Amino acid sequence: MTLDTRLSWTDVRDQVRARILNRTYAPGDRLPRDEDIAQELGCARTTVHRAMQDLALSGLVERKRKGGTHVRADPVTRATFDIPITRREVEDRGAKYNYQLISREMEQTPRAVMARFGLQAPAQMLRVRALHLADNRPYILEDRWVDTTSTPEILKVDLAQHSANEWLVRNKPYSRVDVRFSAITAEGTTAEYLAAPLGSALFVIERTTWIGADPITTVQSVAAPGYQLVAQS
Amino acid sequence: MTLDTRLSWTDVRDQVRARILNRTYAPGDRLPRDEDIAQELGCARTTVHRAMQDLALSGLVERKRKGGTHVRADPVTRATFDIPITRREVEDRGAKYNYQLISREMEQTPRAVMARFGLQAPAQMLRVRALHLADNRPYILEDRWVDTTSTPEILKVDLAQHSANEWLVRNKPYSRVDVRFSAITAEGTTAEYLAAPLGSALFVIERTTWIGADPITTVQSVAAPGYQLVAQS
DNA sequence: AAAATTAATATGTAGCTACATAAAAATGTC
DNA sequence: GACATTTTTATGTAGCTACATATTAATTTT
């Protein structure tokens, strides 16, 4: 048991956060300099610096050189989501995972896919459609396009056995990713594959990845009715 | 012009990331110790440490004391979303913001709301329903419950003038938040208020906040058709 | 051989110094 | 007064030391 009351940077962060919460430092206010806070609390400036960095990262304060640290007037809620490979997601829920390949063919990219990649002209890419199942019930329907220029190896993968999702995540790291969420209405074959009532609302995750400037893949993953995405705490 | 090729921690991070991308360090592999990397690249261990922390934060590697640093075998896509106050969101799109109060009354919390707060028994709370408009078109319909025990001041706020969203964000900082996304079908008054075709799919953001262990507010925000949420790059 | 103890080790953290850098404030010039 | 230049200042970063802490690995004990 050490009797020293040495402050850790998380202690400092929590104290400063508490002061923001109880309005000692109100929205828009400028906080004291790191060094002054350090002196007041009896720790080093580096410790305060680390605490402040964390508060800035979480969106509570804004820091600027020479300008100092300000409590954000319009705090944003910042939420982080983990999007694991579908197999894991299913298995983590304690369900049995299954996978079915629906189609696999070279096609010309439609306008929507060009837009996602930021392409000027259409290209030939591998389009893979597949269904992921949880306990033998449809879970996620994915419609994927893979750039065979950046990823020719995909052509040799037996996609009936291994999902493109898994193969790509394991074998094709990306340097940039774009993720967006939306909702669509269940219609036609989408509704059929997901066994969703016609007209029901479906949650959609759109994910596009690049390596450097080169497109790798873009997927539209449509979840079965009732799907909910929860932020990391 | 300094001729020193002193490495910054972001340089180190990028170099290590590049090695993971190009399979020098493959998924599941253990990376060299921070100190060895530091020596190899010619910088201090602290610099490597900072770089590694960042890679761990972004989900690329996992670190454990004594265990070392490992490339994650099943990398997750980690995406961060900023959820600003609705006024800002609208104005940032260059649209004119408007707001309409629909109803405001004390009610007993239904089961769904109890669940969101984790309450055992129902409670009386202030229920506020309101519509946010962008360029005079429905944008987001919010159905909010405010705990008047933790937040009695809300009762004195003129909610016809200021949205509860804005007042709470500005005046009631929270210490914990739960965010989740889903999709629902447009029906009844929801469809009416949002001027959405019956049966169309609507994107839903559910946000619940606490201060310490005390509930503050929970909102279900239903967006007009076509809404898309984009991750921060 | 199994269990308990001890040692070794990689990451985590705090504090210090020194200097870099951006931006505001002060000053000087026309 | 308007504009350009210099100074000041608060945060940002790199490197060092020293020690904390969580685990694994090795050793001893039963």
TrEMBL record, chains A, B:
Coiled coil: none annotated. SUPFAM superfamilies: Chorismate lyase-like, Winged helix' DNA-binding domain. The keyword DNA-binding applies. InterPro entries: Bact_HTH_transcr_reg, Chorismate_lyase_/UTRA_dom_sf, Tscrpt_reg_HTH_GntR, UTRA, WH-like_DNA-bd_sf, WH_DNA-bd_sf. Keywords: DNA-binding, Transcription, Transcription regulation. Gene3D superfamilies: Chorismate lyase-like, Winged helix-like DNA-binding domain superfamily/Winged helix DNA-binding domain. Signal peptide: none annotated. Residues 6-74 form the HTH gntR-type domain. This is GntR family transcriptional regulator. It comes from Marivita lacus.
